[in-house]
Design brief:
This protein is mainly alpha-helical. It is 58% helix and 2% strand. It has helices spanning 3-9, 11-23, 54-76, 93-114, 126-139, 147-170; strands at 41-42, 45-46.
Length: 178
Amino acid sequence: MNILGALYLFLPGYFANAIPPLLARVPWLRQWGAPIDCGLSWRNKRLLGENKTWRGAIGAVLIGGLVFLGQRLLAAQGFMLGDAPFSTLPSWYGFLLGAGVIVGDALESFVKRRANIPPGKLWVPFDQIDFTLGGVIATAWVFWPGWSVLAILIVINGLGSALAHYLGYLLGINEEKF
């Protein structure tokens, strides 16, 4: 698989990773802002924290699935970027990718709490690659892009995530630049 195909195939993961903080700003969705960890702690530390919500998790899975379904429709019409195998992947692949992105992010938050890093503080490079690893691991049993593609995705997604975080800072979504 070429790099353009890999990036395009991971597009639902980018949307899944970006949607939770945007959904947090929608007033009528605030009632879904309950934390996934239900406020539970382990060794006097929150499991995940207030920022990992059901609203974000459900939104990420849904947007990942919908973006992938849109890509499949475009592929059926002959629009393709790179060599991503849309015709051979199941229609639920994007939902699985979105779930993997969120689980990767949640696992990173769990470890971050154990390392005494407060919510919202960056933890380089893990804050930049957690969603990539989660998404690829969750979908590897359906499609494995290869080690070289995974390495390139980690580098590109890491840099892209840092840039997106900075743009979020400029837009008032994130409290820190990096």
